[in-house]
Specification:
Helices cover about 40% and strands about 25% of the residues. The chain is α/β, with parallel strands linked by helices and about 230 residues long. A five-stranded mixed sheet has the order 1-2-3-4-5. It has a four-stranded parallel sheet with strand order 7-6-8-9, sandwiched between helices.
Length: about 230
């Protein structure tokens, strides 16, 4: 089902965007981002109603996480409501239910803005395992950061290989993950390992962004755990 979007202003500060169909890499994600961009020019507090969203891939989740951050930094906010069973399953499987406020009804989500922004979870004490993620896609990096942070890792991201090299040298990460959009050669991987001999390097599969988000996330977390076991 193609993605359709219906926006409605609620009061002076909040807008509701009702989404119907699939939120996936490509035109659908772009359409959602453009709609949010258009709406937030006048109202930067936005509720996404996802009762009729029947599928979301990793790119779609990444776009959601990134929009949440953009609106929050800009003094607004993003909330979800009326999640379809599929969306609820995916958010639960990827531990993102706690990252983005969700509500049973549109009214509850709209009224929640009156209570102010949701508190930001405090980072747990002590050192955490560091992971550097590299890809050209902001949405993919947003998804990786949210997924891995929810799993307890400290995540640093880069869109350029040169920046990733700097992070590897400066932060001594345990794992480097690079996506299909990055140009990482064997020579680059060797440079990662030269600056940090114990670092584990993982490549995401070409269909990571377009596959089932919960399955892709679970598979990646399993690979990270295996890589850390090899490093030990």
């Amino acid at each position: 089902m193609p993605l359709t979007l219906q926006s409605e202003n609620v009061g002076h500060y909040v807008a509701v965007i009702r989404c119907h169909g699939r939120i996936v890499s490509g035109e659908e994600v772009s359409a959602l981002q453009l709609e949010v961009e258009k709406v937030k020019r006048l109202r930067n507090k936005i509720v996404l109603q996802w009762a009729e969203v029947n599928y979301v891939d990793s790119a779609g989740l990444g776009a959601l996480v990134r929009l949440f951050g953009v609106l929050r930094v800009g003094g607004g906010g993003l909330k979800l409501c009326q999640l379809s069973p599929f969306v609820h399953k995916v958010l639960k499987a990827t531990n993102l239910l706690s990252a983005i406020p969700t509500y049973a009804t549109e009214q509850q989500a709209v009224e929640a803005f009156s209570a102010g922004p949701a508190p930001v979870a405090a980072a747990s004490g002590g050192p955490r395992t560091k992971i550097v993620c590299l890809d050209t896609s902001r949405d993919l990096l947003a998804y990786l950061k949210a997924l891995l942070t929810a799993a307890g890792y400290e995540v640093l991201t880069a869109r350029q290989t040169s920046d990733a090299k700097t992070l590897v040298t400066a932060t001594d990460p345990h794992v480097v993950i690079y996506g299909p959009g990055s140009q990482v050669s064997e020579l680059v991987i060797e440079k990662f390992r030269a600056s940090n001999p114990k670092v584990q390097v993982l490549q995401l599969p070409p269909d990571f962004s377009t596959g089932d988000a919960s399955e892709a996330g679970a598979e990646l977390l399993s690979r990270v755990q295996s890589a850390l076991a090899k490093r030990a």
